[in-house]
# Entry
Amino acid sequence: MAITAMDNQTTHRRSRTRARLADFSSRWSFMLPAAIILFAVLVYPIFYTLQISFSRLDLASFTASQWVGWDNYSTVLRDDRFWQSMQVTGIYLLFALPIQMVLGFGIAYLINAPWKGRDVVRALFIIPMVVAPVVAGGVWRMILDPLWGLMNYWLGQIGIGPIDWLGTPSLAMATIVIIDTWRWTPFVILIATAALLSLPKDVFEAADIDGANWWTKLWSIALPLLLPIIAATFVVRWLGAVKMFDIVLAATLGGPGGATNVINLFIYEQAFRTLRFAESSAMAVIVLVITMVLTGAFLFGIRKLEDVQ
# Structure
């Protein structure tokens, strides 16, 4: 009887092991195609870029021909133009992200209130987000043209201008921030609206009973509840903003005088116009490492914020 019980236990264990293996293999059978595609379009290019960044590139075969170690990185780190483009990118991020976050959540809070036509307004706010970045940059370039643009025509009607929005170094970056804010604030509004609709209604009803005004409800109830969502949205938008390239390419080409020459545009210029692929790969790796470190710091801060909440 004891032997039979042990045999039954062994058989049961084997059947459970086979079931787990079958479950594991079935899951991976669904995940494998996506994993292969991810490896092909993401992992391989990253390792290829790393290889080129430590080598000299043979333009004839487009392969690494000679290992040079850290020479490409030292060349990049001594290049003043690289640091200038990093500074331009930092200025853009410093102004664009806070403006988009404040406007996005502020507008979402305002249009979340019950009033006639708010659904139409919500739909209209999505339009800039679906416009291709290159198209948005080109259209804004025509609107802001100092001679034929609509903006200067309207300003001329009240005796202002003409203003060279994209040709003046002091105004060009501000204009790029405005264009990028116009395009990406609807994304923040979309997330903020969904977050506001998911907030518990009974808390706000209790605040109404206590006589709280809209500012008290915003500052003391909505913001604390939305803080994790705000932080997560900031990280998502940060990852998108670091890749800023196409709007600047279409609107200013990095000018005037490098005032809007963000780092991704500078890397593109170095790679595909001056054919310095090895140095541009080193730049891309440096930017990737900095982005990963800052993103990790942001995610760590979000976790700490959630623990406090």
